[in-house]
Amino acid sequence: MGKLRQITIMMLFLVCLLGSASVRKDTEAAADTRLKSEGWRIQEECSQLTEQMAEEIYTKVLTLRQKLTKGRCTLENGRMVFLTEEIKERIATVRAVFEADETIVRKPCDDPLILGMYEAKEQLATDEAKKEAEACINGWLAELEPEYLKTYRLVLEVVVKLDITDQNYSLYYPVQEEAKETLEPFERYASEHWKENGQERRQMGCERIFEIRQR
């Protein structure tokens, strides 16, 4: 996501959270209460989205992120705001933003990359090669250590395509390529980009150490 685009999304999100500086209507106050207690909020512009749908979508996004990053990260303070709605023919396109505090909880020494390095080190024939491998491993651990227990603010865009005739909906992740936006099925995108391939990462660690043997 481009920096300018992310700043714009954050500004929209903050406006939704803070509301107007003037005295707000009872419905707006109720929406704020819902955001705090249930984790989601529907802006008035989104007339086709029901509360049940909002709850389902919020839960799906939260659960999917937790599932695909389990063991690596934890999520807290999740919230989702459904911002805008555009209706064309019978399809309502709703744009939303999901946010959460995400903390990296996996110890660097438990990273498959590091485990692969140690595995390869044991296969080296000479003490000199093993010493070089240990130095390489320590270098990688030093790079990973600052990320351990570090908390980031996760920001995800979600697009909901809702058929207003039968109330069925699908979730998408908007991918920006230059000036063009492509909507990818949300679960497919998440599976491809959030789920770690531990075996592949372990193999990468092995290969980095085996390079020492080839010198």
Helices and strands in order:
Blueprint: H1 3-18, H2 26-38, E1 40-42, H3 51-68, E2 73-88, E3 91-104, H4 112-121, H5 127-144, E4 151-163, E5 169-177, E6 180-185, H6 186-193, H7 198-213
Parallel strand pairs: 1-2
Antiparallel strand pairs: 2-3, 3-4, 4-5, 5-6
Helix pairs in contact: 4-5, 4-7
Signal peptide: 1-21
Protein name: DUF3347 domain-containing protein
Organism: Eubacterium plexicaudatum ASF492
Keywords:
6-stranded mixed sheet; alpha+beta; elongated; 28% strand; 2 domains; 215 residues
Structure description:
The chain folds into two domains: 1-102 and 154-177, no CATH class; 106-148 and 193-215, no CATH class. The chain is built from seven helices and six strands; from the N terminus they run H-H-E-H-E-E-H-H-E-E-E-H-H. The protein has helices spanning 3-18, 26-38, 51-68, 112-121, 127-144, 186-193, 198-213, and strands at 40-42, 73-88, 91-104, 151-163, 169-177, 180-185. A six-stranded mixed β-sheet has the order 1-2-3-4-5-6, with helices on both faces. A hairpin with a 5-residue loop joins strand 4 (151-163) and strand 5. Residues 20-24 have low confidence and may be disordered. This is DUF3347 domain-containing protein. Keywords: Signal.
- What's the end-to-end separation, in Å? 40 Å
Mean model confidence by pLDDT: 88
Q: Give the helices and strands as they follow along the chain.
A: HHEHEEHHEEEHH
Shape descriptor: elongated
What is the β-strand count? 6
Portion of residues in beta strands equals: 25-35%
Strand arrangement within the widest β-sheet reads: 1-2-3-4-5-6
Q: Share of helix among residues?
A: 40-55%
The assigned structural class equals alpha+beta
- Continuous helix count: 7
Protein name: DUF3347 domain-containing protein
Signal peptide: 1-21
Keywords: Signal
